Amino acid sequence: MTGARTAGALLWPAAIGIVLAAAPYKAFDLDRFFVPKELVLHVTVLLVALACLASARAFALTRVDLLLSAYVGLSTVSALFAANHWLATRALALSIASAVVFWCARAAAADGRARAVAAACAAAAVVGAASSLAQAYGITSEYFSLNRAPGGTFGNRNFMAHLAAIATPSLVLCTIASRRGWGAAAGAIGLTVLAAARGPGAKR
Hints:
Blueprint: H1 3-20, H2 31-55, H3 63-80, H4 85-136, H5 157-176, H6 181-198
Helix pairs in contact: 1-2, 1-4, 2-4, 3-4, 4-5, 4-6, 5-6
């Protein structure tokens, strides 16, 4: 298995892990959701980056790469002059990690894993939306927050709705491009879950 394929395979458990990661320590409010997710993301970035670099032979920079690099550079300068360096460093780390995930996901897609990468993103969003719906319909957990319910494992219903909206195009693509009936059926069910999580049924 090439490094790019390994990275593509790692994105499945990583994407779902990021969505589900949370801690039960209620005194920390939203940070009990943010910090575990950030930790899983950074561990994922380390693993997929090592996998991609192990088999990388050459780097061909495109306009998108240059613009993304410029954004990361500008974010670094901004973080240096931020009033709160702790929050700025965390935000910068997320930006850098997201850029690395983008590059590794693109390498995996170029190596024939495009469907797998899109499916991983879609599946993670459906799992997150399902946790939101579970809370909306009465299931309680130490890993859910009551302050901004029903946010599921994101702790905030708006964050979960944003995730559902962002992932919907990926799920639509996976559904209509599915080569098997069960894949299309799973995609349709997933779209129903995402729509329900964004709609009135997910609100109290």
